[in-house]
């Protein structure tokens, strides 16, 4: 399917547009809270089910299997898909040594069977060291949530909210997955219907898109317009998808083409297309936010303060970032702190990571400034 996607991009001349979309995503600094609270080294909801000659043996087998499954789920979360084939095969003792803590829920057992749900937190520094030894690229910075507006067009009829909308169903199937780019599909209730319609979404009506984004607590809105066609000569369905990203940093648009296989149903094609787009967004995000240990920088910045609590919030957020190796407080007063950030990567990548923790990095009059995006003093309006 990805080969089909790539061929479609080349054929439609959309490759440049796709790279523009990626650049737009990286420039887009979402406002919604929540991403910074996620512990990327914790894996929850690992279902285990084992049978053995005794209850004790079944429990031991289930817990060991769950630990391994959780570890490789963690690796898939942190690393881009292009590096999955290089994931190390570790023995059970090595995996156990990487575990910081775990919880067991929903235990059920018999004389020979054990079932449970595990939540496991891995040791951050040890996992980092393992990935670096294996020379695997990895990111620890999830994106803020993205709101998807799936407009489906078939036989000239455009549909966003009405049922059936198989394109919307395809995107709903991607909600809740373990992804560094969380996707949100609107409920489709009367409030949504009254907020934005298909014509307004396709026209990029800023007021309506901002209203629906506000309702779901996000800044990113991706209008995914899928047009179903049919290649009569080949006898296969073709899906042309226009992706239009809207947000505080502007807009970016790209067109992608997906071809179904012989005998492939419309629902399968829609599911493959939505999955391919979601995976590509996550892959590009991980590559763009990977930790660059080979590149370290030093940046002196001013932090405007409205109160001491502003500094505590900023300090704690900076201290929790993997990209920042060291935080120095050079000076502090009632309205400003002067800091020196020792960071990995480039200032642009640092700005992306800061945005996910509701902090903005900007060059103001030739000086770097770090501001809270969810409170604290804001820059003066331009006259």
Q: Which properties best describe this structure?
A:
five-stranded mixed β-sheet, 383 residues, alpha+beta, Alpha-Beta Plaits, single chain, Endonuclease I-creI, six-stranded mixed β-sheet, disordered N terminus
Mind describing the biggest β-sheet? 6 strands, mixed
Over all CA atoms, what is the radius of gyration? 23 Å
Low-confidence stretches: 1-36
Q: How many domains is the backbone divided into?
A: 3
Cα shape: globular
Structural class: alpha+beta
| Run of helices and strands | HHEHHEEHEEHEHHHEEEHEHEEHEE
End-to-end Cα distance: 51 Å
Instruction: State the helix count.
Output: 12
The percentage of residues in β strands lies in 25-35%
Mean pLDDT: 87
What is the tally of beta strands? 14
Please give the share of residues in helix. Answer: 25-40%
Short description:
By secondary structure, this protein is of the alpha+beta class. It has 3 domains: 2-36 and 142-288, no CATH class; 41-133, Endonuclease I-creI (Roll), CATH 3.10.28; 296-372, Alpha-Beta Plaits. It is 36% helix and 31% strand.
Question: How is this fold's topology laid out?
Answer:
Layout (H helix, E strand, L loop, with lengths): L1 H11 L2 H13 L14 E10 L3 H24 L13 H6 L1 E11 L3 E10 L1 H10 L12 E9 L2 E3 L6 H7 L10 E2 L5 H6 L2 H6 L2 H10 L4 E12 L4 E12 L2 E10 L6 H23 L7 E9 L3 H12 L4 E9 L3 E9 L2 H9 L3 E6 L2 E6 L11
Helix pairs in contact: 6-10
């Amino acid at each position: 399917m990805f080969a089909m996607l790539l061929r479609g991009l080349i054929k439609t001349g959309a490759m440049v547009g796709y790279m523009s979309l990626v650049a737009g995503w990286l420039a887009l600094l979402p406002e919604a809270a929540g991403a910074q609270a996620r512990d990327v080294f914790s894996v929850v909801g690992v279902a285990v089910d084992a049978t053995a000659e005794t209850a004790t043996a079944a429990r031991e087998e289930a817990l060991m299997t769950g630990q391994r499954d959780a570890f490789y789920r963690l690796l898939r979360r942190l690393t881009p898909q292009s590096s999955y084939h290089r994931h190390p095969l570790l023995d059970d003792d090595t995996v156990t040594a990487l575990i910081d803590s775990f919880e067991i829920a929903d235990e059920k057992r018999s004389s020979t069977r054990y079932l449970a749900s595990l939540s496991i937190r891995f040791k951050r520094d040890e996992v980092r060291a393992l990935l670096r030894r294996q020379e695997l690229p990895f990111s620890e910075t999830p994106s803020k949530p993205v709101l998807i507006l799936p407009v489906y067009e078939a036989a000239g009829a455009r549909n966003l909210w009405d049922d059936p909308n198989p394109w919307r169903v395809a995107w709903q199937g991607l909600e809740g997955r373990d992804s560094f780019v969380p996707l949100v599909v609107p409920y489709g209730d009367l409030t949504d219907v009254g907020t934005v319609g298909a014509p307004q979404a396709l026209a990029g009506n800023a007021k309506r898109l901002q209203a629906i984004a506000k309702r779901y607590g996000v800044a990113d809105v991706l209008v995914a317009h899928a047009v179903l066609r049919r290649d009569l000569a080949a006898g296969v369905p073709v899906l042309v998808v226009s992706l239009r990203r809207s947000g505080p940093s502007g807009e970016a648009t790209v067109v992608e083409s997906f071809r179904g296989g012989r005998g492939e149903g419309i629902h399968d094609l829609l599911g493959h297309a939505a999955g391919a787009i979601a995976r590509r967004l996550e892959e590009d995000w991980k590559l763009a936010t990977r930790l660059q240990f080979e590149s370290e920088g030093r940046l002196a910045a001013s932090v405007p303060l409205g109160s001491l609590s502003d500094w505590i919030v900023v300090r704690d957020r900076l201290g929790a970032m993997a990209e920042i190796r060291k935080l120095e407080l050079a000076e502090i007063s009632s309205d400003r702190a002067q800091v020196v950030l020792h960071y990995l990567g480039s200032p642009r990548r640092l700005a992306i990571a800061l945005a996910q923790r509701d902090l903005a990095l900007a060059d103001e009059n030739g000086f770097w400034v770090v501001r809270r995006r969810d409170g604290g003093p804001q820059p003066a309006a331009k006259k």
